[in-house]
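Deliverable D5.2: sample structural annotation.
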Amino acid sequence: MENLISLVNKIQRACTALGDHGEAATSLPTLWDSLPSIAVVGGQSSGKSSVLESVVGKDFLPRGSGIVTRRPLVLQLQKIDEGNREYAEFLHLPRKRFTDFGDVRKEIQDETDRETGRTRQISTVPIHLSIYSPNVVNLTLIDLPGLTKVAVEGQPDSIVQDIENMVHSYIEKPNCIILAITPANQDLATSDAIKISREVDPTGERTIGVLTKIDLMDKGTDAVEMLEGRAYRLKYPWIGVVNRSQADINKNVDMIAARRREREYFSNTPEYKHLAHRMGSEHLAKMLSKHLEAVIKSKIPGIQSLISKTIADLETELSRLGKPIAADEGGKLYAIMEICRTFDQIFKEHLDGVRPGGDKIYNVFDNQLPAALKRLQFDKQLSMENIRKLITEADGYQPHLIAPEQGYRRLIESSLTSIRGPAEAAVDAVHSLLKDLVHKAISQTVELKQYPGLRVEVTNAASDSLERMREESKKSTLQLVDMECGYLTVDYFRKLPQDVDKGGNPTHSIFDRYNDSYLRRIGSTVLSYVNMVCASLRHSIPKSIVHCQVREAKRSLLDHFFIEIGKYESKRLSSLLNEDPAVMERRTALAKRLELYRSAQAEIDSAAWSK
């Protein structure tokens, strides 16, 4: 059982070291709130400090008028073997042991001032103090600032509400045990501790009442009704204590003598004799230790489940935010290259069908290009009027003898030139689809979301590469059309005399061949040839586009960018890896919190194995 309190002590220290103080305002998961604890609550001058010193058996807390405790003090008591010298350690001074408890008091004051300045402000950041002694029980208490009703000089008017809010933030947690310190010589109805504990624990399930200053009650009065729970009932019995008086403190009366006098007071006072066995600071410490052990034991399984779930949640969010970048130039360059390779791989997966989108390129070749070729209006170029015009212009001053070869060439060339439009449109359509795939790949590259500067650079570099590839593809594709215009398929036309012999009229003179029948036959021949060329280009244009754009994009989309970033200075590389400061802060905070939860998990597992 003693190991359980030590276990919670370790986790609480880790919480403080890694910034988990249980603040409600944070968006981070808090482990602090799930840990069982005992919060000491009381008004100013209620004897709260004296109760804590009696439990410890040492005079170590700051004293004075007004608000003395201005930060939560997590007091962890650990019993050591008899004969060993007692000492104290602060979490913020891990390698320093205090054997003079007057120095402990001074360090509490100094550490409070370091956090709040030399003002009378309060802070929610706790001070962790561990005391190792043969004369204590294993116990952890959280001493909170005393409740007050009026701000003193040098304090803001909000100090009363600020303290109440801080106390509330601790005692409203369902795992918090409330140690309510109430002076017996004041009306219980006006007790600050009872009033605030009732607000969060109306049934008294989590509240343990402590009556102080019983020896200072007016003559003829006693605290029996309160100690027996008849004045205000709680689940656990009230405990009375008799603290050192101010005169005793001034005379440096030691705690051993004070405890002896306390025992004698309850044993020898007739009103309290029947209650003496459960009165006094020694009984209070033992009862609190046993109670805290029992609560921790009941809560450990739930804490383990919470830790496992939170670790998984933190790891998921950290993975989404991405890894932090190395500080050196080589590390930054490597990080940029790795991110770019990730993007490039995603882009290739879109083209190869692993991810959707690449199939739209095939649609350009299978539907869009054939449809565009089919829509070409060759009828305009091959109208009777245009055929007659081009044939006669091609003949010049001397009509053709057998076949109007130059006229044929001009008609074919003017018809084939119109194929340039669909060819260019196919190139542009594939370019547009490749750009869309680039944007998809960028949006799917998690690391690029992390670095807006790099995302812009990669987008621009990929767009520039695609633009260069489009120009090259357009040049190559149009060359295919131009080659068809520049060199006609001779074998096709060698068949023409045979066709004429089979279907023509040899009695016509050369000069009669400009009639409509003859021109229609020329138009039919040219259209047949142009359709043959269209059928050929329908297959060769996609090959050119795939070679110049699609395959080249797969092979070298960011090659030019890789060459350029190799020339960047460190400052330029850093600018590419600048990310949203909020993301950086969130990642750092999550990493610290994950470290805390893993540490807590390891501590709990270790305790389970040792048990």
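Annotation notes: The chain has a mean pLDDT of 84. The two ends are 10 Å apart (CA to CA).
The annotation will be released with the project's public dataset once the embargo ends.
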